[in-house]
Design a protein that fits this description.
Layout lengths: L12 E5 H6 L5 H11 L12 E5 H8 L3 H17 L3 E6 L2 E5 L4 E5 L4 E5 L2 H4 L12 E5 H4 L5 H11 L13
Helix pairs in contact: 2-4, 3-4
């Protein structure tokens, strides 16, 4: 019998490569929120895992403090836009630019209240074993950003979280 561990929303963390964080700057707030909930279900220490991730409307409502009846609509709209966006662009080196799709596919189950996202192989390396990335990774509790109401406020939180472990932030101006 397989053992499956369930986490409460309070315990869920988002762990992702800093390259991926930079690539999400073009997303809307709802798209970012959907990806954060999906990412919170990825085990950052494991490559072999289920890469079709189910996000429930009840999880959205709990994490982002909205009514359940609006949660599914917002999730579906965000998933539709992620499917419409041709790709994300990751600048992973001085002469290296990678392009990939945000999601490989999605399934909507309105009566069951969830959206499933298929994470494409090109994106997986920025989630599983993100801590091995040269540019580092960032991890934070999803409820820490749940009440933030703009994509820019989440960007700022993620940017500052990158430097939390060292307590030092150095910004160079070219």
């Amino acid at each position: 019998q397989a053992f499956k561990m369930e986490y409460t929303m309070k315990e869920k963390s988002v762990t992702q490569s800093n390259h991926l964080i930079q690539a999400t700057y073009s997303l809307t707030l709802q798209e970012k929120r959907l990806l954060m909930l999906a990412i919170s279900k990825v085990n950052p220490h494991k490559w072999q895992q289920e890469w079709i991730i189910k996000v429930k409307a009840s999880e959205w409502a709990e994490a982002y403090g909205c009514k359940l009846r609006n949660a599914y609509r917002d999730m579906k709209d965000a998933a539709d836009r992620l499917m419409e966006q041709p790709h994300l662009v990751l600048n992973t080196g001085p002469d290296v630019t990678e392009k990939a799709y945000w999601v490989g596919g999605c399934t909507y189950k309105k009566k069951e209240g969830y959206v499933s996202l298929s994470i494409p192989p090109e994106l997986r390396k920025y989630l599983a074993y993100a801590m091995l990335e040269d540019e580092g990774f960032t991890s934070y509790k999803i409820l820490s950003v749940g009440s933030l109401r703009s994509h820019n406020s989440i960007r700022l939180y993620e940017f500052l979280s990158r430097w939390q472990s060292t307590g030092v932030l150095t910004i160079s101006v070219d």
